[in-house]
Design a protein that fits this description.
6 helices, elongated, mainly alpha, two-stranded antiparallel sheet, 67% helix
């Protein structure tokens, strides 16, 4: 199941900080993203748990939530869907679009070149 933008914001907090309470996630969203009510974060995280996007540990008074899937697995699936729908499955088209629309630093280019060299080996 593909997470919504709001669900991805919650996942990013959990990927960065590990299993957390709703209060912690809500505080981080307010610090890093935008003003959001605790009750909205709670409801969304409960829905995410029902959808299977989050796992909920109910063994203590404060429920602890964690992503059900690893970060790389989720990001890979989202990227594949994006490339399929926007670039007809062509990763090369995506990369050329990125380089055409953004000032890519020489450091970024060096990292990409090193990555491509490793793929060739």
């Amino acid at each position: 199941m593909e997470p919504t933008k709001s669900e991805l914001e919650i996942l990013q907090v959990l990927w960065e900080h590990g299993p957390s309470t709703v209060r912690f996630v809500n505080d981080k969203l307010n610090e890093e993203k935008r003003a959001v009510q605790y009750s909205s974060t709670l409801k969304l995280m409960q829905i995410m748990a029902e959808k299977g996007i989050l796992a909920r540990d109910e063994s203590s008074m404060k429920h602890i939530y964690s992503p059900a899937e690893e970060e790389d697995k989720t990001k890979t699936a989202l990227l594949e869907r994006f490339v399929d729908s926007m670039y007809k499955g062509s990763a090369a088209s995506l990369v050329m679009q990125l380089f055409g629309n953004k000032n890519t630093s020489s450091q970024d280019l060096d990292e990409i070149k090193d990555f491509l060299k490793k793929l060739d080996k």
